[in-house]
Amino acid sequence: MTGSPAERRRVRIETGGPVLVEGPVELTGDDGTTVTADRFLVAVCTCRRSKRYPLCDTSHRKRVRTDT
């Protein structure tokens, strides 16, 4: 492995959910746009349903309809 522990970022993949990255991070999209997040943990959208893409807004969660 290269890089000191201070340079490495921990990434956790959530099944059916976002990729969690220890922040702060800078994300560059395939169109060249850049988003920065200064949070200590950043959720990166993998389903592309997020209105804040590439950041997750929990749009991947199943919606349960309750008719009363």
Q: In terms of structural class, how would the helical and strand content be classed?
A: mainly beta
Query: Which percent range fits the helix content?
Result: under 10%
**Strand residue percentage:** 25-35%
First-last Cα distance:
57 Å
Q: What kind of oligomer do you see?
A: single chain
Q: What's the overall average pLDDT, rounded?
A: 85
Largest sheet data: 3 strands, antiparallel
What gross morphology would you assign? globular
Low-confidence stretches: none
Order of helices and strands: EEEEE
CA radius of gyration: 15 Å
Number of helices: 0
Q: What's the total number of strands? A: 5
Strand order of the largest sheet: 1-2-5
Task: Describe the overall structure.
This protein has 68 residues and is an all-beta fold. The protein has a domain at 11-42. It is built from no helices and five strands. The N and C termini lie far apart (57 Å). GO terms for molecular function: 2 iron, 2 sulfur cluster binding; metal ion binding.
Output the keywords:
mainly beta, 0% helix, 68 residues
The gist of it:
With 68 residues, the protein is mainly β. The chain is 0% helix and 28% strand.
Topology:
Layout: E1 11-13, E2 19-22, E3 25-28, E4 34-37, E5 41-44
Antiparallel strand pairs: 1-2, 2-5, 3-4
